[in-house]
Fold these 2 entries.
Entry 1:
Amino acid sequence: MTMTLEQVAQAMVAPGRGILAADESSGTIKKRFDSIKAESTADTRRDYREMLFRSTDAMKGHISGVILYDETIRQKAKDGTPLTKIITDAGSLPGIKVDGGTKPLQFSPGEVVTEGLDGLPARIKEYHALGAKFAKWRAVIDIAPGIPSYTCVKANAHALARYAAICLEGGIVPIVEPEVLMDGAHDIDRCAEVTEWVLREVFQELYINRVTLEQIVLKPNMVISGQKAPKRASREEVAEKTLKILKRTVPAAVPGIAFLSGGQSDEDATAHLHLMNAAGALPWKLTFSYGRALQAAALKAWSGKPENTAAGAKAFSHRAKMNGLAAAGKWSLALEKTA
Ligand code: 13P
């Protein structure tokens, strides 16, 4: 049975479920493996990701979709089963990262623009044939004195909208990801101001590029203090200000919003999502599309050793369950400790 684009978008944000971002580029996954002193080879990357995708409780119960990297969507498990089949057998949807990463933006010191539009229609066609139901493109906006610039926000919003239109034309749901980084020393109100600006530009560009909002999933940052801010806002303030900005900028036609974790601790990412979902009725589903906040504990438990596969899968299952509860507004600190 073929699903319509609307049905895919809705399935990605189905109640109590969210997305596993496992689309680290070869460079990024090497950094993650370095942190656990594991070698990064095609086989170790396969073993690690196979461990996650075979965590049946997590996948069946809480993971609606998995974002893959080009290498992974073509890879087979140790027993020869395509990794995409393991994902679909668990009732989850395979997706694919299609952006080409960030490059310095001309005449805009310290700012970047995401590349990868050239040849994208043909690549989308190939990924569609490989079983991808959705795609991801990440735009990156940094906050520092004097930035972001108008040029940076505009260029990134335009590229996101072009990407989204290309995906829809090729029969794939686009995850639209404008990430305002939390790396700086800025306070939460500066993050709110920039996030509101970026989201307004993104939805304007989506409109100009004739993107049907019912067929996309938005993947934004939360409104949060910079990591280096002298005084960081509370979890309650993050939840309140994130909801305030999203209500101002995201049309109700969008089926769902799946947050990135962006460097938040595992528990913060879960608690923030829970508080927002517990706050009352919302026009869209609010869930997770976490990379680090879903994988950090599993990566550490696994540590590159085959004998730790069960422990790694268990750690992943726990985080998937906690975030599934948060997506339903049913998480608590007490449940967190039942690991
Ligand atoms: P993090 O949750 O680690 O930010 O990763 C999500 C993601 O897909 C970034 O593009």
Entry 2:
Amino acid sequence: MLKHLSKEAEETPLGSQSPPAKRSCPDLQEKQTGRVKKTRPVPQVPWNPKVDLCWHALVRGASDECEPEWCNSEDPLFILYTSGSTGKPKGVLHTISGYMLYTATTFKLVFDHQPDDVYWCTADIGWITGHSYITYGPLANGATSVLFEGLPTYPDVSRMWEIVDKYHVSKFYTAPTAIRLLMKYGKEPVHKYKRESLKVLGTVGEPINPEAWQWYYNVVGEKRCPIVDTFWQTETGGHVLTPLPAATPMKPGSATFPFFGVVPAILNESGEELEGPSEGYLVFKQPWPGVMRTVYGNKQRFETVYFKKFPGYYVTGDGCRRDEDGYYWITGRIDDMLNVSGHLLSTAEVESALVEHEAVAEAAVVGRPHPVKGESLYCFVTLTDGLTFNRTLEADLKRQVREKIGAIATPDFIQNAPGLPKTRSGKIMRRVLRKIACDERDLGDISTLADSSVVDQLFQNRCCPNV
Ligand code: PRX
């Protein structure tokens, strides 16, 4: 999901407020016509002359020429912090040549990049999706791209499709959460625009539930655009499981097969490789050019997190099922797996059953400790616009999950969630939801939340007594 510029910030005319004395860069005051206006006219952060530099002052004396800095292929390229299931975020370190080669190649093949394409990835540029598939991959291919900062729902819920028509976007890449958000408003806002230029649609970031997939395919792509459901991670640098458009027969909700050079395996708890249709831990058996090289400043943590549980394999931390046709289906993070009375359940599977109900726009499921069953299912549901939550709907949703998956998956709690705690990249922070389900107020670091006010609201609406 995209960074939100508040309406006020977008609409405040330059110079309509006076900069507070001593807080702003002096240059901002003298250079009213400057183009860098993000913090203007009032800087959002206090100016610290020891560390802050003013853009205008710097560019004034800068040369138009910039000699390249020659580097070794294994020199560090960037560090991107990603949350770990325990402890502080990990600084994922990528290096120059492998990352460039991998993002360039996956971009070219997975989006079937052609010289006359117009490509648009809606991700936040500070997220790995933005690094790999807004900057490196497309730029290395000389692609024409749309860069967008804004919301898919502002000024109205047709915004995405308006932009697609305006710039003749042919390859479009977004997250399931954005698709589910737009699905809530139905087909009409999509049909307002023609979208004839679209050729390939991509998704990334989380398992896409079959309903959202179908809506994306049928309504947005009008059944003529292949969907590339790309599975990858900050750590993998680029796509590792993905269809190739028009070449790979699709199955809604499956990231299909490995990209060239990637060798997946599915392991059981004892680390044995499973053959044929099976479910277990998704691991990779050999490196590929874009794989992370280390956790910055902590090689030991790199080895512990990714290589210790199953020596000789890279452990993704995701659960995965391989079906009878060899397709891979991500079942969610292993740490999102629930164990209810000895049965392993995937949160994604329960969420999908809930979202199939017409009243539900989005769902997030977490485990809540249960004295007898080990864990019980605590479900947060965001309803389709205009609907209200009531006991009948709650019973209906429980019945739906029971019918779709089985009695063992019957939710114990269903809570109305007008909003879900999400990072700026649109990822639901299940860690926070687990705390809400247990009424634990110590949430740890929630600075990456896009809107922390939803958390208070969810605590107020809790629907069950403490155990
Ligand atoms: O659980 C998988 C999920 O996102 C995780 C990686 O998150 P992050 O490092 O923030 O990178 C997100 C953008 C690449 C994975 O471990 N994930 C990502 N893509 C998919 C997915 N789960 C299912 N299907 C996907 N296509």
